[in-house]
Hints:
There is one protein chain. The chain has 262 residues and is mainly beta. The protein has 1 helix and 23 strands. The radius of gyration is 27 Å and the shape is elongated.
Amino acid sequence: MKRFFYRSILLLVAILVPTGICFSGASTGQNLIIDQNYQLISKHRVSRTVYEYTYKANIINNGSNDVQNVTATVTSTDQHTTVVDGDLDFGDVAAEATVTSNDTFTIRQDRRYPINWSKLVWSIQSTSISRVIEFISANPDTVFVGEPATVTVTVQIGADPELLMDQIYLLRVDSTGNVLENYGLMYDDGTHGDSLIGDGTFTTQIQLDESGEGQVLLMVKANYSALPTIGHSEIAIIDVLKHITDEDYLKAVNMPNDVEQQ
Length: 262
């Protein structure tokens, strides 16, 4: 009985990132980060000691997915700094890209006190998007502990002028989708196990030699020239089993008799 099955970990539909993601200055730990090196656009004097400063800001996407409709709002926790206009719009931000805000934010500062940039707290909202690649398969879908095996992995990718044909990779991942190993490129040129040139089915062959029982999780990543710039496949699962020894087999066969004799 065929044990291979698919498990989808990414959706083509946009998933709204929860709001209320806050951090101060250029804090890390989030995929989207506001760079603290603000660009001064203008300043003017409000009173003898108070000035208004207007800035643009950059946002950095350290994540692996593109995001759309990115906005950010800044507030101040410093009594000497007042936010006059704290809303920024960044539009779409590709994975691993840096984008400058389309508009500006303005703060009012009592110049008797230095600006404490760490007291500016940002809240970022965005919509994460990714393409989904379907029809991934692995043959064989079962390997045995301690026995080297060649596994042929194929994936079908629909015709798309934005697909970068030389940037389609096979990845080994864990149960949460984190990459454990990059097996390299997949091919649609009649090599590396590929059966037909240019048919939209990409193939590669990998060598597995597992030391223990479990599962090998495989996923395909493809890059595109336009948003969304990254596509991920569903996960292909290869079972890793131990061979049943003669002793284990005899125990299993004789077990019903043993039960009856008790």
